[in-house]
């Protein structure tokens, strides 16, 4: 695969496949771009994934960080997919590491329509929130450069608002033509605006970060920054769909119905494990700060090591707080 000076040092990704003998019985590395199905192609990098969905026109699902922009454009060239063929850019939730390739694409190719949850109308018109999104992206881009993962990235200037063209909610459908219809479902928990995208004819569910955070080969941890109970309901909702393919926002795709079932079950189990862990620590007299410091050391793995240490600590402290809030609510209900 050809590389320009801005390309990632590598273009590989974790795949989960029942036939692999590694890890949990289904861990392997593949080169990108990777054809998941006839109409779905995995792009981006190991850490930050994008998906090309083909109908009469194309949609890009998931938007990664801006540092992935140039490698992604090279991958499109490799696939002989001209920008003119891409009609929609689909954001599954508004965290910066899932949207920041899209400002460059939207700026260059204004006909591309950005699609996201209707909850993001308020988020994307808040100058304060949008500035924070761009600042977080700038920090991770600098980290990628410092580690030699990329040599250049777009020089993005913060917007007063983030572009948004089409809003979706539970049951909304995006029709790409040729029978390729993306049906949206609300899967909050990780964030209030998190949506999944289901391609029924492909048996493929795009879950973004809604199924918990997986780090290969066998590490799961919860990521309910919004609400624990909603995260549980959302994973149960995805399990009820029983997809054959699970397309994540990080570390690739789970392929095979039994693999997906196991993956979602482990995502659900890691929530139960973290609840038990947090309660045990609290009952033994640990403070929220002490628990957060402990889990920060345990859980800041994989691409999270690129994030500033204080940012990781803030997230883990929030996870502990969300867990305690959940039990306060349960106790009030009893």
Overview of this protein structure:
The chain is an alpha/beta fold and 334 residues long. The chain has one domain (12-271): Metallo-beta-lactamase, Chain A, CATH 3.60.15. The chain has eight helices and 17 strands. It has helices spanning 69-78, 102-108, 120-124, 127-146, 228-241, 257-283, 288-299, 309-333; strands at residues 12-17, 27-31, 34-37, 40-44, 49-54, 58-61, 86-90, 113-117, 166-168, 173-175, 181-186, 195-199, 204-208, 213-215, 219-221, 245-248, 253-255. The strands form three sheets. An eight-stranded mixed sheet has the order 2-1-17-16-13-12-11-10. A seven-stranded mixed sheet has the order 3-4-5-6-7-8-9, covered by helices on one side. Strands 14-15 form a two-stranded antiparallel ribbon. Helix 7 (288-299) packs across helix 8 (309-333). It is globular and about 60 Å long.
Order of helices and strands: EEEEEEHEHEHHEEEEEEEHEEHHH
Overall domain count: 1
Rough outline: globular
Structural Rg? 19 Å
Q: State the helicity in percent bands.
A: 25-40%
Report strand order across the widest sheet: 2-1-17-16-13-12-11-10
Instruction: Tell me about the largest β-sheet.
Output: 8 strands, mixed
CATH architecture: 4-Layer Sandwich
CATH class: Alpha Beta
Looking at this structure, what is the CATH superfamily?
Ribonuclease Z/Hydroxyacylglutathione hydrolase-like
Q: How many β-strand runs?
A: 17
Strand content: 15-25%
What is the averaged pLDDT score? 89
Low-confidence stretches: 1-10, 18-25, 329-334
């Amino acid at each position: 695969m050809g590389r320009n000076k801005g390309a990632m040092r590598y273009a590989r990704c974790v795949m989960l496949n029942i036939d692999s003998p590694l890890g949990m019985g289904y861990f392997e590395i593949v080169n990108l771009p990777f054809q998941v199905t006839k109409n779905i192609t995995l792009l981006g990098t190991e850490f930050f994934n994008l998906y090309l969905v083909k109908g009469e026109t194309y949609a890009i699902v998931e938007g990664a960080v801006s540092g992935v922009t140039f490698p992604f454009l090279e991958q499109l060239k490799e696939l002989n997919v001209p920008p003119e063929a891409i009609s929609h850019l689909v954001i599954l939730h508004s965290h910066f590491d899932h949207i920041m390739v899209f400002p460059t694409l939207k700026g260059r190719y204004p006909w591309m329509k950005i699609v996201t949850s209707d909850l993001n109308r308020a988020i994307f018109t808040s100058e304060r929130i949008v500035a924070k999104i761009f600042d977080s992206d700038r920090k991770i881009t600098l980290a990628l450069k410092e580690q030699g993962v990329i040599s250049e990235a777009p020089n993005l200037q913060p917007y007063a608002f983030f572009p948004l063209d089409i809003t979706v909610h539970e049951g909304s459908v995006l029709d790409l033509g040729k029978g390729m219809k993306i049906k949206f479902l609300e899967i909050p928990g990780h964030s209030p605006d998190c949506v999944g995208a289901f391609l029924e004819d492909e048996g493929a569910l795009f879950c973004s970060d809604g199924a918990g955070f997986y780090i290969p080969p066998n590490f799961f941890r919860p990521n309910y920054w919004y609400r624990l109970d909603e995260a549980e309901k959302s994973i149960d909702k995805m399990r009820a769909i029983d997809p054959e393919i699970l397309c994540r926002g990080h570390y690739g795709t789970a392929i095979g119905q039994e693999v997906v079932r196991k993956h979602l079950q482990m995502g659900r189990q890691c929530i139960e494990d973290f609840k038990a862990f947090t309660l045990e620590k609290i009952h033994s007299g640990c403070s929220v700060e002490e628990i957060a410091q402990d889990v920060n050391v345990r859980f800041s793995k994989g691409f999270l090591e690129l994030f500033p240490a204080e940012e990781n600590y803030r997230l883990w402290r929030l996870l502990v707080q969300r867990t305690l809030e959940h039990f306060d609510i349960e106790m009030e209900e009893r």
